[in-house]
Design a protein that fits this description.
The structure is a single chain. The protein is an all-alpha fold and 334 residues long. The chain contains 17 helices and four strands. It has a single domain, classed as Orthogonal Bundle (ABC transporter involved in vitamin B12 uptake, BtuC). The strands form two sheets. The chain has a two-stranded antiparallel ribbon. Helix 6 runs antiparallel to helix 14 and helix 7 packs parallel to helix 9.
């Protein structure tokens, strides 16, 4: 028995394990540093919950972005789409007095826009960057036009009965400690992990990202896979929009969703997903999102200038891509 254990121990590939779990290792290291610097203040239950809550919306969007980047794509429209989905949801609720219809409207808008992005990118061979950049401008412009540069608030009058929508994000469970948005984020991470690892769509997604031509020759419907992935990502943006609209009770056509696409992409890349596609994990993105969240929180606790947050995030993003490039070169050498 001892010999078997020693053989397994000797054959363990530490380099491979570190590459696959770099985001988790980095997160643990950051938490240790935060504890050493801020101690009980960082470990306070309220502070930990705030970190999770403040990153739940980006976390949900980043799950869909992970799948898009795995197939070798990119989506710059998620921020504008978040605002649009939230505005449509609130308008439907205020008009019909039906919360369920508002939910369906937000997710439908996300799916339709995602389907358009995926179709234009896959069937018409327009680069994903151009398609989603154009869609980002179109959606933001339409949102601004509809809301006249302002926003929409949920109607809280008892007669309409849609004020209860605020409970969708405002409710806390487990003794009032854990907000529901965190549960939504983690539950969707579990669900999309199953989709990626246990379904044909997930296997085809990795195949397309690794080698699109080989996947096509292997009878994988590349165009359909890409379109479906963009539609799933759009649906997740719709859910994130509902969480945000419920949390603050309104949506603004100008400011809501601003820079969400950049934050989501950063979380995905820091989480270990290859920018070239074909490799990545949902939970890596969850850890990547938390890495950004812990850094932001630690800077706030240390009362460092908030203007430096973007610089630090950008530096970490560049370093993450650099490490990916170095790791891929070593793999090619072997």
């Amino acid at each position: 028995m001892n010999s078997i254990k020693s053989i397994n121990f000797k054959n363990f590939n530490y380099r491979q394990w570190l590459m696959e779990n770099s985001a988790l290792v980095t997160l643990v290291a950051l938490v240790i540093i935060a504890i050493l610097i801020q101690g009980d203040t960082f470990l306070n239950t309220r502070n930990i919950v705030n970190i999770l809550l403040n990153n739940a919306i980006i976390g949900i969007i980043a799950i869909g972005m992970t799948m898009i980047i795995i197939i070798g794509g990119i989506d710059l429209s998620v921020g504008s789409l978040t605002a649009a989905c939230g505005l449509v949801a609130l308008w439907v609720m205020n008009t019909t007095g039906n919360i369920f219809l508002g939910f369906m409207a937000a997710i439908a808008v996300g799916v339709v826009v995602g389907g358009i992005n995926g179709t234009l990118a896959s069937r018409f061979r327009i680069p994903d960057f151009i398609v989603t950049l154009g869609m980002m401008r179109i959606i933001r412009s339409l949102s601004l036009h509809y809301a006249r540069g302002g926003g929409i608030m949920i109607d809280r009058s008892p007669e309409l009965g849609v004020g209860g929508f605020l409970a969708f994000s405002g409710t806390r469970i487990f003794g009032g400690y854990l907000p529901l948005p965190v549960i939504y984020w983690l539950a969707l991470a579990v669900l999309m992990t199953i989709v990626c690892n246990r379904t044909a769509l997930g296997r085809h997604m990795y195949a397309v990202g690794s080698n699109e031509r080989a996947a096509n020759l292997s009878a994988v419907n590349v165009k359909r896979v890409k379109t479906y992935i963009y539609m799933i990502a759009g649906a997740l943006v719709g859910v994130a929009a509902l969480v945000e609209a419920s949390r603050i009770g309104s949506m603004n056509s100008a400011s809501s969703g601003t820079f969400y696409e950049l934050e989501a992409i950063a979380a995905v890349i820091i989480g270990g997903t290859a920018i070239s596609g074909g490799r990545g994990r949902i939970w890596g993105t969850v850890f990547g999102t938390l890495i950004i969240g812990v850094i932001n929180n630690l800077m706030n606790l240390m009362q460092l200038p908030s203007f430096l947050v973007g610089a630090i995030q950008g530096t970490i993003l560049i370093l993450a891509v650099l490490l990916q490039q170095l790791a891929s070169k070593k793999e090619k050498q072997f």
